[in-house]
UniProtKB/TrEMBL annotation:
PANTHER family: ACYL-COA DEHYDROGENASE, ACYL-COA DEHYDROGENASE FADE29
Keywords assigned: FAD, Flavoprotein, Oxidoreductase
Name the UniProt record assigns to this protein: Acyl-CoA dehydrogenase
Domain Acyl-CoA oxidase/dehydrogenase middle, chain residue ranges per copy: 122-208
């Protein structure tokens, strides 16, 4: 495995970084935060125009036929800049699944529009009573001729109030075991019977609880075989579990170092204190490990291997490191570190306070740390259930 990017990938990173610096102004950052929505159509289509939306996709779908490392560079920089990408990421994830197992009609209907930023797709997995146990879904889809009638609710359908579709997991056979009898659908959200209600998170993000009341869709919107939805959703969970949050840690470290190197009125700097240097060094080490774990997953995919346990290793280490580091930095900065995000007079415009709130949720996204450790134990170490 190579631990450093080659010169071409580094040059590509510089291009991506220059574009993000040009478009992600402080005013844009504040507008997105105040809205609570991690998506902006103009920004997403700007990425499409530059070829940064899905660089490793084939050119026929709007990609650039680039390799996995260029795609990784784009992901790292978008995360490092905290770009409003969540809806774009879920859209791209579902598009990848449709490309792999969708019907020809579904591919023609969705893929090109998704890659142009004209179609957006939210995720409908979690339910109010199920938590991280996605397979315990009780939302029902009942066959009625050539249609399906869906009833139930989903929790944490982030961007479900603005997306065009939701990638929905529904139970189609209640008599089969929990992980069986499930089917995946792509539900148009302009269908009668759909409703989204806002739920605000600790980090200031809007997510939704969504309701499906006699939602009727054609069988054309089914993805994969009937009662084989767990195999389909496994493709998306594999992608989510291999996520790494190291770039967020890098952003926190950048602001912490800038704060530590800024002189006080008497000319002293926090970084001149041994305890400050020690804490920053620990964050820097965990940032380096987080990036290496994530890049190992990319390398494995490039080699034709599936990072079954390595993906969860990357996710659990980087998110727990981010949580530790955000708490450590706020403790280090003191009461000023809790001054509000985007307040001009707060240290680093309040980014320490915001990261403290944001980091707490990252250990839950895409499966809790407990879920990740179970996967590592069972599928990585071969331990019994």
């Amino acid at each position: 495995m190579h631990f450093q990017l080659d010169p071409d990938a580094e040059a590509y990173r510089a291009q991506v970084r220059a574009h993000l610096r040009a478009v992600l102004s402080p005013e844009f950052e504040e507008r997105v935060y105040r809205s609570g929505v991690a998506h902006d159509d103009e920004f997403a289509k700007g990425l499409v125009a530059k070829g940064y939306f899905a660089p490793d996709w084939p050119a026929e779908f709007g990609g650039q036929d680039r390799g996995a490392w260029d795609a990784q560079v784009v992901k790292e920089e978008l995360m490092r800049f905290d770009a409003p990408m969540y809806l774009s990421e879920t859209t791209r994830m579902v598009a990848s699944i449709i490309r792999a197992v969708g019907s020809p009609t579904m591919k023609d209907r969705i893929l090109k529009g998704a890659m142009k930023g004209d179609i957006t797709i939210a995720l409908g997995f979690t339910e109010p009573e199920c938590g991280s146990d996605v397979a315990a879904a009780t939302t029902k889809a009942v066959r009625d001729g050539d249609d399906w009638v869906i009833n139930g609710s989903k929790m944490f359908t982030t961007n479900g109030h603005i997306a065009d579709y939701v990638f929905l997991l529904a139970r189609t056979n209640p008599h089969r075991p929990k992980h069986q009898g499930l089917t995946m659908f792509l539900v148009p959200l302009n269908t009668k019977g759909f409703e989204a209600q806002a739920v605000w998170t600790l980090s200031g993000e809007r997510t939704n609880v969504t309701f499906y009341t006699d939602v009727r869709i054609s069988d054309e919107w089914r993805i994969g075989e009937v009662d084989e939805g767990w195999r389909v959703i496994a493709l998306s969970l594999q992608d989510e579990h291999a996520s790494g949050w190291g770039p967020h840690l890098g952003r926190l470290l950048h602001h912490a170092e800038h704060w530590a190197d800024s002189p006080a009125a008497d000319g002293s700097r926090p970084i001149d204190t041994a305890d400050v240097r020690r804490r920053l060094a620990r964050i820097a080490m965990e940032y380096e490990v987080s990036m290496l774990l994530q890049r190992r997953c990319v390398w494995m995919v490039e080699q034709g291997q599936m990072p079954v346990a390595e993906g969860p290793m990357s996710k659990v280490f980087s998110t727990e490191s981010l949580e530790r580091a955000s708490q450590d930095i706020v403790e280090l900065v003191g009461p000023d570190g809790l001054r509000s995000y985007l307040e001009p007079s707060a240290p680093e415009r309040g980014r320490f306070e915001h990261m403290l709130r944001f980091a707490l949720g990252t250990t839950i996204y895409a499966g809790t740390s407990e879920v990740q450790r179970t996967i590592i134990a069972q599928r990585g170490l071969g331990l019994p259930r």
